Amino acid sequence: MATPASATMPDRMPKKRVGWTLQRLPEPTPADHVGKLFAGRYMLLRKIGGGGMSTIYEAHDAALGVRVVVKIMRGVLPSDPVDRFRREAVVLARLSHEHIGRILDRQDPEDGPRFLVADYIDGLDLSLLRRRGPVPAVVVVRIGLQVSAALAYAHAEGVIHRDVKPSNIMLVRHHGGDVFAKVIDFGIAKLTRGSDLADGAPAGARRETRGDVVPGTAPYWSGREGPQRDVYALALSLAELLTGEDPDAAADLAREHIPPPLTMAITAALRAEITTMDALYAALREAEIQMPSEVEAERRRYVARVFGAPAVDKAPAAGKTAWFAGRYIVGAELGEGGMGRVQFAFDMVNRRPIALKTIRPRCAGMTHLEDRFRREGWALAAIEHPGVPILFESSAEPEPFFTMEIVDGVTLSAVLRQGKIEPLRALGLAIDLAGILHAAHDSGVIHRDVKPDNIVLGQGDRVRLLDFGACLLMPRFYQRHLMYPATPTAQRYATGELETVGTPGYTAPEILEMRGGVGPRSDIYSVCVVLYEMLTGRRYESPATGRALPIDRGEFPAALAPVADVLRRGTAREPSERPWSMADLVRVLEILRAGLLGAQRQRLLVLAAVAAVAATMAILGLVLHLVAGGPTVGELPAMSPPTSPRAADSTPPSTLGSTDECPADIVSPDVVAQSPAAPSGGPPVPVSNNAVQAGTVSDAPPLLTPASVRARLLTRRERLEKCGAPLLVVDLTITAGQPELTAVNGMSKGDHLHTCVRDALRGLAFSSRKAPQKFTVTLNPGPKVK
User: Cβ distance 422 to 392 under 8 Å?
Assistant: First the structure.
């Protein structure tokens, strides 16, 4: 649980809650302890990190007189984060390896804040190192050897890290001037069965992380579990360092500066040909042995340059000035577009890494492009949402530029190159993306270039939206802050009036064709196109032909059929046919996701019930066999037919061959009638109440199914349309053919939508048995799709 010395940016939380969202908002920011004595021993010097569960401080240990890191948990948290805290404490306290961060103290009281104290690591995490460009192979192989040795030791102790990535590996200042790495952050580590570390650990420390989202950071986790998960993540991290590019398991490592043995080792680990950390260590050791002898000096020079004096960092690189505006040390290129470029830089005034965006030289001096560049900075400053990068500074001297926070993560396009995304996760990402755009629209900003390349997924699948360079500022934007001087009319230039912006295949047709009507619904089109690609793994429009295929329900599983209707409406060519606002789209997607979650939980309950019944029957059979000495349940002897009415009364009731398990149709032993078909003088045939009334058992009403209930409800389509909801999730109980409405879209009695649907279904009857049946049915009450 050690952290880098470099400061991280605090998340900017929205000022108000949005009433329609079903997403759980983060807890309030905890009290700031900077400058205070904590736990009577630790003087907290500065905040250096934090997240939804904890805040991390650099501190001075008054007892030992050394620098430490104090991680303080938030006051009120559910059980799962507390379990993670306990598990991390157990792991770090009992693991002892020179390349794993060490814990010094831990407090886990019933009342009062929980906290951990760990070594302060003076170094850089590898994600910062990668931004400077490709790391030399001789450095990467040494880092790989040290980290694989540490993780092999952890695996032998029964600990799987599960979140190996460059930002959780520190390059530490070493007195010998060589490479020295440490693995940090065991917050979601897993203790395997039989691990000695689990003995004596709190119950919460032995429990795995819960939730419907796979823990860890995309794309460093894969479908593998156990040690293979860490092997894959470490290999992908090493590949990222070697290439200096976004992590991509399919990237070609056959490059001039990467030795072939190292390429073979990393590729084999990514392809699951290497499955243990010991085997990966052996492959990396073989690659290092085959390197020339003079590489040791190169490795030391690189480390000295990374941790050297500022004069070394200020040296010009490839003919470019290393300093900008007298305060920023410029590093590697982070991205480049048609108008601007983004570089990694270090702010010497505020002592923090930042992203520096400037106009490309060929665009300098063009007034309309400089105005457009300025408006991008205005948009970032106006939107109050943690999914948008924080704007730090903007200026026109020495040239137009602005600085913003660095967004860590992987682009959605890189994730999609590995295949389609699981439906629950895809809907969650789309909901978060739409939430960001809803905040932008509230501020009067239309993005107009939403695409996977501009969407970054951070830790825990946190969605961030980048590149507002093509944004359009609506009149609502300029109508804010009316007490202050208005924006000059000349600077309110609308990009779409003079040139085409956006990306074909993702940007709405009205933008690409410059035919007017640009607004919030233009971004709705892009969100639906991105969601379609996440669910199917295919582009909505073919890059070769530029044409889109019709969205068919058959492309999706039955549980996702309603999504096809939503996507078809959201990608309509005319903006007026799309959902009215981003809030409407989010509401519909959340209903769909809630329905999928409910169906998933129902399947799990059914499986658990079946397993419980099977186990009970097996135990009952064993008891009968051992205690009574008779046959087991599966071996009951056949019974002879009764020879008298009294004997017939004593036999178990018959179901006359019916497979229906409805309790209302089980024959009662008190109801016995002489069947007309029975031979004269033969034993009476027992029949059910229903059979007596209807004449034969085949006349009993059939069991209802979700499909038949849905079809019956849609006979009231016209009435349901008047309720104004684009999608309905209806919970109802049907007893003896009479439906009772329980909830609509999660809302119970008293809600106006519940009342409207109840009135629309009034008088509707079903052919049902007496036993109550519960159904959850998803309806699209809109007009039938032709």
Answer: no
pLDDT at 437: 95
CATH number at residue 398: 3.30.200.20
What does the mean pLDDT of the chain come to? 77
User: Residue 780 — pLDDT band, cuts 50, 70, 90?
Assistant: confident
Q: Has residue 586 been placed in a domain?
A: yes
Residue found by looking up tokens 């831990």 in the block: 106
Is residue 362 within 8 Å of 368, Cβ to Cβ?
Answer: no
349 and 330 together in one domain:
yes
Q: Where are the beta strands (DSSP E) in 296-377?
A: 323-324, 328-336, 340-347, 352-359
Beta bridge partners of 335: 342
And the tokens for 425? 């996760």
Q: Is residue 371 part of a domain?
A: yes
Residues 279 and 341 in one domain: no
Same domain, residue pair 294 and 342? no
The reply to whether 368 and 434 lie within a common domain is no
CA 305 to mean position of chain CA atoms = 38
Collapse the DSSP code of 598 into the 3-class scheme (helix H, G, I; strand E, B; otherwise coil) and give the result: helix
What amino acid is encoded at 317 in this protein? A
- Distance from C-alpha of 548 to C-alpha of 541, rounded to nearest angstrom: 4
From 119, 125, 163, 523, the catalytic residue: 163
**What strand order describes the sheet that includes 169-172?**
123-125, 169-172, 181-183
For the chain, what is the largest distance between any 2 Cα atoms, rounded to a whole number of angstroms?
A: 114
Q: Hey, how many other C-beta atoms are within 10 angstroms of the C-beta on 41?
A: 16
Q: Where are the beta strands (DSSP E) in 304-421?
A: 323-324, 328-336, 340-347, 352-359, 391-395, 401-404, 410-411
For residues 584 and 439, membership in a common domain is answered with: yes
Considering 143-152, 184-193, 534-543, 749-758, the range whose residues carry the highest mean pLDDT is 143-152
Looking up tokens 């395997």 gives: 192
Question: Does residue 621 sit in helix, strand or coil?
Answer: helix
Cβ within 8 Å of residue 91, ≥6 positions away: 154, 159, 186, 189, 191, 197
Q: What is the mean pLDDT of residues 273-277?
A: 93
pTM: 0.53
Looking at 189-226, list the stretches that DSSP marks H as alpha helix, in order from N- to C-terminal side.
203-206
Return the pLDDT at 769: 64
- What's at 149, amino acid-wise? A
How many domains does the chain divide into? 4
For 148, 221, 389, 755, the CA distances from 281, given in Å and listed in that order, are 6, 19, 38, 65
The count of residues in the chain is 786
Q: Can you give the pLDDT at residue 676?
A: 42
Domain that holds residue 111: 37-307
Give domain status of residue 669, yes or no. no
Q: CA–CA separation, 289 vs 296, rounded Å? A: 12
- Rounded to an integer, the average pLDDT of 69-95 is 72
For 336, what's the count of Cα atoms within 13 Å in the CB-facing half-sphere? 5
Residues 171 and 205 both lie in one domain: yes
Residue 122: active-site member: no
Q: Is residue 5 part of a domain?
A: no
Alpha-carbon dihedral angle through residues 76, 80, 84, 85, given to the nearest 10 degrees: 20
Q: Which residue has better confidence, 107 or 436?
A: 436
Q: Is the distance from CB of 383 to CB of 443 less than 8 angstroms?
A: yes
Residue closest to 390 by CA, chosen among 323, 468, 453:
468
